[in-house]
Amino acid sequence: MTLPPDKEVSFKDSVNLSFDLARATLEIPDGMAQYIRNVNNVYQVRFPVKVKGQIETFIGWRAVHSDHKLPAKGGIRFAPQVNQNEVEALAALMSYKCALVDVPFGGSKGGLLIDPSKYDRETMEKITRRFAFELIQKNYIGPGTNVPAPDMGTGQREMAWMASTYNSYRPGDINHLACVTGKPVSMGGIQGRVEATGRGVVFGLREFFRTPEDVKSAGLEGTLQGKKVIIQGLGNVGYHTSKILQEEDGAKIIAVLEYNGGWWDPNGVNVEEIYRYKVANKGLEGYPGPGKFVQDSTLLLEEECDILIPAAMEGVIHRGNASRIKAKIIAEAANGPVTFAAEAILQEKGVVSIPDVYLNAGGVTVSYFEWIKNLSHIRFGRIQKRYDEGKYEQLILAIESSTGHAIPQALKEQICKGSEEIDLVRSGLDDTMREAWKAIRERFWTNDEIKSYRIAAMSIAIEKIHNSYRTMGVYP
Ligand code: GLU
Fold this sequence. Notes:
Layout: H1 11-23, H2 30-37, E1 41-51, E2 54-66, E3 72-79, H3 84-100, E4 106-113, H4 121-137, E5 146-150, H5 156-169, H6 196-210, H7 212-217, E6 228-232, H8 236-249, E7 252-258, E8 261-264, H9 271-281, E9 292-294, E10 307-310, E11 329-331, H10 340-349, E12 352-354, H11 356-359, H12 362-376, H13 385-403, H14 409-416, H15 421-446, H16 453-472
Parallel strand pairs: 3-4, 3-5, 6-7, 6-10, 10-11, 11-12
Antiparallel strand pairs: 1-2, 2-4, 7-8, 8-9
Helix pairs in contact: 1-3, 1-16, 3-16, 4-5, 6-8, 6-12, 6-15, 12-15, 15-16
This protein binds glutamic acid (GLU).
């Protein structure tokens, strides 16, 4: 077993050190543990694209960490600082995440080294299609092998280009739409995928707050209502998480952090308004308030609050700032926001981390629903919605005629409404997050060797992956 290092290690080593702690609590043969821990294969590609008359060379990666279940699944990130170590770490997290929440996929991740803000839409399409082509050629994209999804710097638009590229190189593949997830709904996407990671974070937090024992372990009490929340990163995940927390749970968002400045208002910012301002102005500077602009947004990570939600990059909480974090809970909406070294410091201080492998699994969970939708070629709810409505209407009639009382119209409509796709997606996501947390907390509270929810979550994931390999017959 490896002890917490006294220095910072790479993102991949951070993930692997957590693996080692979790693995030490399990009975797994050494060779098998080493196999599960390491990335199975990684493809690095360079390709040229003509941009404004000049040839530019791009470099990208797609790593498959595990393929005990196929397809391997995980996002593709477009970012100016992505590298192979990062992609491999993210692929490993995908394996553990999928196993933990019972999404039957292996783990994969991709990255393209690019600053998307430097290129116009047309050029981005050319580059994305070319990258997709390179991946398709080597079987790193396909409905049954490897299924990318959005991540940092990519969204529905890029997924649509990738799906369309796949279709043109594999004509006649009836399941071609299942080759990527996170597509626009008009192109085989699913309702609720865009909000999924953020909504999953909220479902996870709600489940945490349902158990007083867990809440107490973080030095808190009560529900999410009125809790002071700091959000780092107002991208897709941070926006949906904070908006839902504010509008549906009554949490108070006291600070919002972007890389180029943050906003602080102890009375709570209006998430929708500040988000719109950020999109229109590419930052928070000049927002009319109330509250104040803070140029060095990293300082806001250290403000007093109940829940700190890092929702952007890895490594934002590290040895350098961990001792100054005042939050009671760190809710990891991003992948790898807390380094292994920082985790040891936070634990010492009694700060509770709700780990990324669990808390941000909503994205891939709804991707799984989208993939099923694409393979079954039918929208969820289409067959049974009206049938259910008819049954509920009959039930209401029966109740009214046997009791002699009319049920109020508004309630009747609520009961009779058949499920739309979005209702089913949210219900499936809610169930997934609840069940996974029950398993994590059960392991945490019943195993003295396990000192954090992260190690509890990782040990469940590793155990499941190990069982898959064993039943597959990798060794007797
Ligand atoms: N990129 C997301 C993640 O890190 C989603 C992956 C997916 O939907 O496959 O979990």
